[in-house]
Every structure is written in C-alpha cells, then in structure tokens.
C-alpha cells in the first residue's frame, strides 16, 4: 500500500516492517512528507497494531517538526508503537469503534547475562522515552502513564479521549483493523485474537517482504518463541479436550518444530559466542550448522590453530565446503587448506 495517497499519509499495517503486504517505514514517511511539503496541513490516517519502536519514534519526530497542522485520524486501531506516532498529532481523532492500546515495549534476547542486561537497558530507555511522549501529549503524570503502560491498557475511542490520549471521537464508523498477530499481546480483546487466527495473521507463518528486511535486534513487538510455544500448548490442550485428533497432531508437530528450531538457534549463538570462535567464525558456524553441540565445538575450536596461524580464511574455507572437500566420493582436500583442521579433530578425538 502506498504511504502517500490523495494528499494524505496512509499508515496501515506494521510499523517498520511489511507483513501480508501491509506496513510502512520511517524512510517512506519522510519521503512522503517531502512530497507533501513542510508548510502544508496534513492528515495522517493511522491503522496499525504496532511494530518497531525505532521507526515509530523517527516518524513521531518527523511529524512533530512538520510546520503545517498535523491531524492524526485513527481509522481502526493504534496499538503499541503506533500510539507513539499518534501522539505527534496536534489533533488526534478516534473514529467510533476504533481502539488504542498502550503498553511497555518488548524484545527477545539470546545470549549471556551481559546480553540480557543490555536488552533491559534498551527496553528501559525505550519505556522512559515513550512515557515522556505520552505524558507530554496527554497531560497525565509520568507515574500514571508508566502505570498505564505496565498494565497494557486497551481503550475505546471515548476512553482514549477521557484519559487524554486523544482529542475527540468522531461519528464516522471505524474501518477494519489492520493485519497484525494480536495474540502477542497479553490483554488483547478476544475479537482481535480470534480475527488473527481466522485471517492467519501469524508472525511464525509469514516472513517479511524482501523489500523490508528484519533487523533481529529491533523485533520489539513480535511474538517470542516462548509466547508462541505457550500459545500452541494451550491450543493443543483445548484440541485434545475436544478430541480433534487431526488438528492436535498438526499442532504437536508445529510445537516440536518450534522447540527444535529454538534449540538449534540457542546452540548456534552459544558456539559463536565462544572465545575459541574468535578468528574462526566460519568454522564455528559450520560446526553449528551440522548440529555439533557447544561443548564438542569448543573442544574442536580450542584444538585448532587460528586463521592467523595458517588455517584457511573464510573465503577459502567456504570454497572448500562448497566443493565438498573431505567428503566421501569427492577429491581429497588440499593439504594447506585442511591440515590444521584435520590435526584439530585428531587431537580432540584422542583426548
């Protein structure tokens, strides 16, 4: 969907991503504003279940500095990061039947204690920044805003006006809500989670469009593996109770796949984080790809010489792998490419 239509900004779908052919980015909004002209009044039609906080804040700042009057019209839903964008309006209008959701930012981290601590720092910074934006626009006390965020509040048009997060509820009927996997939110209305199931709006089932690559560190609002696993387990129990064996078997398979994928990613992250993997990143990744566990990978890597000490560089190593070097039925590998690794495996197996 084009962001700039008939002189209006139309921000439908996920903030910063493209799923189900819906979504918009900060760069697209900046281009649209340049086309519209800084001095001209602007109407922004917003219908989004959330997305990436970084893009939302960038869009908020761009709209806040626009010289013409900015009117935000919530066509159906403004949730999570989308509410940050809404706060940029000099006038915020909720169509009757539209809803707004405010909560704390979310993220998922794979790594050690230090990695998780960095994520906590990042989320705390985002939460404080979002709270200051909400407080400034609504006139509410900062502590009250933080309480709203932690509680994850879902507001009707009238409630959003009452709490100061919007200026008025318009008589025009709300449009259909934007595509989004509303199951990731703790207190989403049942009507929205049911629609996500019915429409197959699942972050697990779809990949972002190629034009909008995902930055894993920015997936602040997407469903975590644990949340998806918990959801599948709950749905599986319900299916078993209803004796739906076919659907139950399919869901068991999906749950098993999800757990296996998570285990593989965790193992890969652990191997790549090893001190022994430094200077041997390609080799470490190769070990992870074939399912070598972190303990065994550490032993192999520690017994091997570093790249600087004569093992193949990344390009050489990948070329050797692509040619099937060392596999049965192929030509023998060159001694200068694989000798160091052969010795490493020999030393490891002998220990």
From TrEMBL:
SUPFAM superfamilies given in the database record: ClpP/crotonase
User: Keyword annotations for this protein?
Assistant: Coiled coil, Cytoplasm, Hydrolase, Protease, Serine protease
Which stretches are annotated as coiled coil? 222-249
Biological-process GO terms, alphabetical: protein quality control for misfolded or incompletely synthesized proteins
The Gene Ontology CC terms held by the record are:
endopeptidase Clp complex
Entry's InterPro entries? ClpP, ClpP/crotonase-like_dom_sf, ClpP/TepA
Gene Ontology MF terms:
ATP-dependent peptidase activity; ATPase binding; serine-type endopeptidase activity
Q: Which PANTHER family match?
A: ATP-DEPENDENT CLP PROTEASE PROTEOLYTIC SUBUNIT
Family, per entry: Belongs to the peptidase S14 family.
List the protein's name: ATP-dependent Clp protease proteolytic subunit
What organism is this sequence from? Answer: Nitrobacter hamburgensis (strain DSM 10229 / NCIMB 13809 / X14)
């Amino acid at each position: 969907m084009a962001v700039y239509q008939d002189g209006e900004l139309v921000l439908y779908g996920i903030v910063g991503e493209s799923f189900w052919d819906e979504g918009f980015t900060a760069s697209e909004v900046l281009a649209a504003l340049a086309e519209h002209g800084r001095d001209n009044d602007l109407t922004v039609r917003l219908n989004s279940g959330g997305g990436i906080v970084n893009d939302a804040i960038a869009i908020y700042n761009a709209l806040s500095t626009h010289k013409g009057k900015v009117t935000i019209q919530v066509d159906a839903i403004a949730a999570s990061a989308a509410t940050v964008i809404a706060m940029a309006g000099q006038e915020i209008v909720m169509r009757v039947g539209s809803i707004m959701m405010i909560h704390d930012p979310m993220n998922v981290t794979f790594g050690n204690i230090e990695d998780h601590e960095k994520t906590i720092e990042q989320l705390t910074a985002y939460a404080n920044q979002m709270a200051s934006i909400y407080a400034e626009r609504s006139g509410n006390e900062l502590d009250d805003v933080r309480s709203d965020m932690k509680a994850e509040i879902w507001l009707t048009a009238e409630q959003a006006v009452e709490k100061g997060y919007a200026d008025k509820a318009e008589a025009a009927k709300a449009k259909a809500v934007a595509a989004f996997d509303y199951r990731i939110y703790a207190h989403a209305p049942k009507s929205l989670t049911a629609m996500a199931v019915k429409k197959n709006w699942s972050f697990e089932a779809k990949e972002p469009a190629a034009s909008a690559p995902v930055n894993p560190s920015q997936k602040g609002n997407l469903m975590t593996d644990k949340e998806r696993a918990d959801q599948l387990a709950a749905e599986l129990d319900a299916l078993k109770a209803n004796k739906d064996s076919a659907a139950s078997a399919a869901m068991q398979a999906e749950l098993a796949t999800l757990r296996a994928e998570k285990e593989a990613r965790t193992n890969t992250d652990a191997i790549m984080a090893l001190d022994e993997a430094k200077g041997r990143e390609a080799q470490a990744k190769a070990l992870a790809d074939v399912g070598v566990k972190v303990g065994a990978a550490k032993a192999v890597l520690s017994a091997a010489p570093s790249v600087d000490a004569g093992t193949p560089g990344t390009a050489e190593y990948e070329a050797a792998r692509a040619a099937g070097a060392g596999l049965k039925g192929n030509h023998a590998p060159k001694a200068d490419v694989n000798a160091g690794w052969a010795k490493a495996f020999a030393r490891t197996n002998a220990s």
